Give the backbone structure.
Amino acid sequence: MNLGFDLIPLGRSEVRVSPLGIGTWEWGDRFFWGYGQDYHEADVQDAFRASVQAGINFFDTAEIYGPHTSERLLGRFIHSMGAEANVVVASKFVPLPWRLRRADLLRALRGSLKRLGLKQIDLYQIHFPLGLVSVEARMAALADAVEAGLTRAVGVSNYNLDQMRRAESALAQRGIALASNQVEYSLLERKPERSGLLAECRKLGVTLIAYSPLAKGLLSAKYTPQNPVPGLRGRRYPVEYLALIQPLIGLLREIGQAHSGKTPAQVALNWTICQGTLPIPGVKNLKQAQENAGAIGWRLSDDEVRALNQASDPVALV
């Protein structure tokens, strides 16, 4: 089946992924996303199946999502599809203050594998840096996981420029590549560019995995000053800010029309791909999964990318 796109390498590892993945934070999260209210297990299972059938093979979860619920759901969905679900699975270790030993990471990874129903994971990441344990010690534990055959590749998440450089260097001493750094990145969150992190990822051959590439729904164009962001998200994105971003939303609409009616969300996701990153938007239902899939198999022009950069500059939060 010709999907209109090729799989890409995850950093310098042997893992190959679709140019867009799926983040599964919403799968089981009741506090922030309201799982179990307006969407349920059947909805996210439909989203999983539609994503796989569209050729999307990368699914990112974490032990803290749910907690544990996201991993269990993803594992069930994979096994329900059988051989058809030829997917790449990523999960994350939460460096809680009492998890000080290298063995703690291996124990957590085995727990994730059990919940996922897998013998080996494709990418295992440190969810965020904490000062109680050094970057180098955490990387030693990730290297142990690779050598134990529990994961094919390793990465980090929410690491700044210096922390990522230290992580890459520490892993290199064990002959292992740092495959990825997962950080927030979108047209409204451009800190990875401005801090030099994105450029360093390119230099080191590290894939920047972009979480919240739609700015938690703002770039989907469904929120306006008249239809504000609900719940906890609304505290970060007040009505005044929604008014400020409307020119950018208008440009996303205009560019989308020039590409056979692509939606603002599809254009925003394609922009992150054009920046050389791997976006992982979330999905709650079949409709969102189908819209995400429409972001790949085509490409914005250089002029369109520049225009979006210029429109984003004055309203990006960082």
